[in-house]
Each structure stands twice: as C-alpha cells, then as structure tokens.
Design brief:
The protein has 400 residues and is of the alpha+beta class. The protein is built from 16 helices and 10 strands. Strands 1-5 form a two-stranded parallel sheet. A two-stranded antiparallel ribbon has the order 2-3.
Length: 400
C-alpha cells in the first residue's frame, strides 16, 4: 500500500507541474519542466532500473547474446539499431559489407555504443576481445522503434512508437533458464504482442504493444485503465515485467512484488512520466489518405457509425470519464477476457490520435487494417453502413 500511495503522490506532483506551466508561470518553471523532460528521455532510453538482476542473473541473456545473437538475428526478432549512435566508420562498414552482421561480436560492439534500442549492456574488453558481463532492458525496448532511414531496422529513434516488429516472447524463450513448456507459450505470442500479466497469473492472452505517445490529458492510459496516471503503469512494468529493483502493490489484483532491497524505480517516475507526456501522436503522412473521403468519413464517425459515442472530444476517448465492461467490446467476451485479469475488470476506449500508425488493431491485434476495424463494428453492432461509408470512415481514421 505504501507503494501505491507513493505512485499517486508522484502523479499529483506531476499534475501540479503541468498545471503551473499551463497557467503561464515564470521562466524558471519552464526551464525546470524542460530539464525534467530531458531527464525522462534519458530514463526512457537508457535506464534499466537495475533489471539486470532478472535478464542477467536469472535469465542469463548475456550468455545467449554472446554466443548466438548476431545483428542479423537481432534484427529478425525486431530489435532496432539507433543510427545516430553509430560512428560514420561503422555506417560505412555496414554499407560496404565489411562489418560482419553474422557475428555476435558485432552485437557486443553495438551494445558498447549504446546503439541497440532498449538494451543496455556492460561490455568489458581484455586482450582485444569483448565480454558481455551484464545486460538489461529499458522502456524503449517495446515503446520505441526507428525510421529505417539507414537500413531496415536501423535509423533514427521514434520514441513512443510501439515496436510491432519486436518478438518479445521469442527473445525470452532463448533463455536457458526457461522451461520447454514455457518456451512453447512464449514462442506462440508472435511479433508485436506481449502478455504483461502472464508471469503474474499464469494465463496466456497476449495483447499488442501499445503506443506511448499522445497521452497528455488522458488519465487511463492502459487498455484496462488500471491506474489514473502513467506512473502507475510505469511502476507495474518496471517492477513486475522488466524486473527492476523496487516495489509494486495493488490490493485490487491482489498483488505485491518487491525486487531487491534498494528502490531504483520510484525517483525516476516523475521524469519518465514528463517525457512520455511530451510525446505527441504522429500526424498522418501526406498522401496517406484520401482527404475528400476522410471528410465524408468524419460525418459517418459522428453520426451513423456511432463512433463518437465513446471516442469523444479532442482526445477522441471517454476514458477519463468512464470504463466499459468486456461485453461492450466487439472482440469480447472471451473466457477469461484480458480485462478480467486486470485491476478494473473493464476496458477503456482507445484514443484514436495516431491510429494510422499502429496496426494491427483492438487490444488483441485481431484486426489487421482500419477497414477491418470498421467492418467488425459494422457487423457486430448492426450499423448498416454501406461499402462506401465503410471506406470513407476508414479514410477518416487514417487521417487522425
């Protein structure tokens, strides 16, 4: 319970900071907020919260990476490389084919450069040979990708964008500490999907990795709206999923987890939340949708399509006011539903800004395209939309 109170206190402090900025307080407050956001960016990208205790000491992933994870393998399971962290000589070598992308030693060299998005490795060098001593993961592993501007999987970071190429289950299944039966479960998740409750309740129902952008002004930031602020879910993931050193407790689950004797999570949460709140949803690329059809689709969205009933206001969600029972979901009920495993047992209406970017759709990824989303609602809700209205509504969603 102390942990929950601490998380709420942090959240209230952040609300105060943001409210002060919104009311036009002085330059010092602006500078303080910019500093907090900059600190949060570093936390998001590079802080493991001490989770090497899980990824190194328990899962022994440092052994796996050293022996078998070359850059080609890493890219094939969705890991990304930050091109801005690469010296020009390395870029030239990759372009020329003189950098060996089939050697785990090259992966270690990339870890030394802090170039592997979401992975933090401690690499020592003796007699010209690198040794990966410890490895941990950061928030950016799942909630950042790259723009592929240098090569597929290599480019500039796109923080907040969900890495829907990342096969977390397959990566964890490489661990020699994981049983064969558990490997089968993990390998069944697939790219872009993860079950953040599987290691808690033993059930298996992965959901798509959500975006971490466009959250400013939205209190219920998870599929099930468990916490009122980002800090709640950041603490949950940092402690119970990443294996960071700290405590998470929620009597609604009920769940209490403490890792280690030293808390390396709590004091990072205000800055981390500030950075996440600064990440705006990406605008739809020019030419990616039909503007005339989108204008017609907006009318369908607000009228016959009934979308605006739940996707309300400028945030395009009613999540701050209400949560919905599983029966309201067009991909429920499932037994057990994903929501039934959460603290609220409910679902929030997903904000739609930037929805063009993060296919597949619904919490379980069961709709491959926005056209599939509209068709599902049209069928399950009996909306009676024509084929033209379905196409127009999909174009509107692509424009958001």
């Amino acid at each position: 319970m102390n942990t929950i109170k601490l998380g709420i206190g942090i959240g209230h402090a952040m609300v105060g900071v943001l409210a002060a900025l919104a009311s036009g307080c002085g330059g010092n407050d602006d500078d303080d907020h910019r500093d907090l956001v900059a600190e949060g960016k570093q936390v998001f990208r590079y802080d493991t919260f001490g989770d090497e205790a899980k990824w190194t000491d328990t899962l022994r992933m440092h052994e796996v990476i050293s022996a078998a994870v070359d850059p080609t393998t890493a890219l094939s399971v969705g890991l990304k490389v930050d091109a801005d962290a690469l010296p020009q000589s390395v870029k030239d070598g990759i372009a020329a084919g003189t950098v060996d992308l089939k050697s785990p030693a090259t992966t270690l060299a990339l870890l030394k450069l802090d170039a592997v998005v979401g992975l933090k490795g401690k690499v020592s060098t003796q007699n010209g040979a690198d040794t990966l001593e410890r490895v941990g993961v950061t928030c950016a592993l799942c909630h950042s990708t790259v723009d592929n501007s240098f090569a597929p999987g290599i480019g500039k970071r796109l923080d907040g964008w969900p890495n829907r190429d990342l096969n977390v289950g397959a990566i964890i299944a490489l661990s020699p500490a994981v049983s064969s039966s558990e490997k089968a479960v993990l390998n069944g998740w697939g790219a872009g999907r993860y079950d953040p409750r599987h290691n808690i309740d033993g059930l298996n129902k992965p959901v798509v990795i959500p975006p971490a952008y466009g959250l400013a002004g939205i209190g219920k930031i998870t599929f099930t709206g468990d916490g009122n602020e980002i800090a709640y879910w950041n603490r949950y993931v940092a402690v119970t999923q990443m294996g960071g050193l700290g405590t998470f407790a929620d009597p609604r689950l009920p769940l209490s987890v403490t890792n280690g004797a030293v808390d390396r999570v709590s004091d990072k949460l205000p800055a981390l939340q500030a950075y996440q709140l600064s990440l705006a949803a990406p605008a739809a690329p020019a030419g990616s949708f039909d503007a005339s059809a989108a204008a017609r689709g907006k009318l369908v969205f607000e009228g016959k399509g009934q979308c605006a009933t739940c996707h309300t206001g400028s945030l395009l969600t009613d999540a701050n006011a209400v949560l919905h029972p599983p029966a309201d979901s067009v991909v429920e009920p499932e037994t057990p539903s994903y929501a039934s495993r959460s603290a609220t047992k409910m679902y929030r209406s997903t904000p739609l800004k930037g929805v063009w970017q993060h296919a597949p759709y619904f919490h379980d990824g069961s709709a491959a395209t926005l056209e599939d989303v509209v068709n599902t609602y049209n069928t399950k809700r009996g909306l009676g939309l024509s084929s033209q209205e379905i196409a127009d509504l999909a174009q509107y969603l692509k424009s958001l």
